[in-house]
Amino acid sequence: MTGKMCVNLTCSADDTDKATVAFVIANAAVASDRDTMVFLNVEGVRLSQNGFADDIHEEGFAPLADLISSFVGAGGKVWVCSPCFKKRNLDEAALIDGATIVGGAKLVEFLADGSPSVSY
After folding, report:
1. Which one of 10, 91, 96, 115 is at 20 to 30 Å from 82 when CA atoms are compared?
2. Hey, which CATH number is domain 4-119, 3.40.1260.10, 3.30.230.10, 1.20.1410.10, 3.40.50.12160?
3. How many Å apart are CA 77 and CA 89, to the nearest integer?
4. pTM over 0.90
5. Using an 8 Å Cβ cutoff, are 8 and 41 in contact?
């Protein structure tokens, strides 16, 4: 891969447009041969749960569940903020394929070499 890219996502069903565009950008990055990671935090952690994105479909875009699946299938990583996940009492057994619960130190490590990041 030719570099890294972080897409920081703080929303899910509370702003489906931002959630969708974040995964559109993430798919473009991983297709451009970037080591790409989506960091789900705040309300974005809800997208880590199997089935949560199934009914999210913004006009003009592929369904969000398909975008997430394509991203992971292309080698993208989904990291889930541990404190945000725990605060919302989500189910670790219901994590989507490709999702990993991480702490803030893991995000800092990923970004430490100056990796670009966009936030939604």
Report:
1. 115
2. 3.40.1260.10
3. 22
4. yes
5. yes
